[in-house]
Amino acid sequence: MVTQFFSLAPLTQTSILSFIILLLGLAGVLWMLWVKPMPKVAKSASLGILFVMIGGFSWVFYQSHNAEIALTDTELKLDIPFYKVQLARSELLVEQARIIDLKQEQDLTPSFKTNGIGMPGFQLGWFNLKGKCKAFVAVTDKSELVLVPTKRGYNLLLSVPEGERFITQLQK
Q1: Gap between the Cα atoms of 109 and 131, Å rounded
Q2: What is d(CA 29, CA 50) in angstroms, rounded to the nearest whole number?
Q3: Between 13-35 and 40-63, two packed helices, what is the crossing angle to 10 degrees?
Q4: What is the pLDDT of residues 83-113, one digit of tens each?
Q5: 1 burial type by CB count under 10 A (0-12 exposed, 13-18 middle, 19+ buried)
Q6: Residue among 137, 120, 129, 107 nearest 22 (CA)
Q7: Start-end of H helices in the chain
Q8: What residues in the chain have per-residue pLDDT under 70?
Q9: How many CB atoms lie within 10 A of CB 104?
């Protein structure tokens, strides 16, 4: 089998707006710190931290447009900002993979972020689900979700526009 690539669903207007508001808010704090009289060391440290945060969130916003899922004969690779998840196909419970609707299966809704980014319209990283299981989540559009359970004790919850084709190829 040739490597097959699937992209994540594009960012929704809500997620784009969330990123813009976040970046503008950080830029506003940066400007306030710049003009506020403070000790030089405190100002330098604060401005440095904010520059790193603005750069990091800008990079995630940019890279989220290029996030992809690669499926080969032997493995599944997720190339997503800040995270590279690589699982052997033997570690996936492919017969249980399915498209889900969070309105009907609310116990699969990401609830508590353990390591990642969570904002309106965009969830990325490790989350606990309402049903108390753990999942690696890459959600940009809640209407196109694929759930892939693993033998490692966690699920993959991914926004894949071609969900049916993805599951079909996964189960081959």
Answers
A1: 8
A2: 8
A3: 160
A4: 889 999 999 999 999 999 988 888 999 988 8
A5: exposed
A6: 120
A7: 13-35, 40-63, 163-170
A8: 1
A9: 7
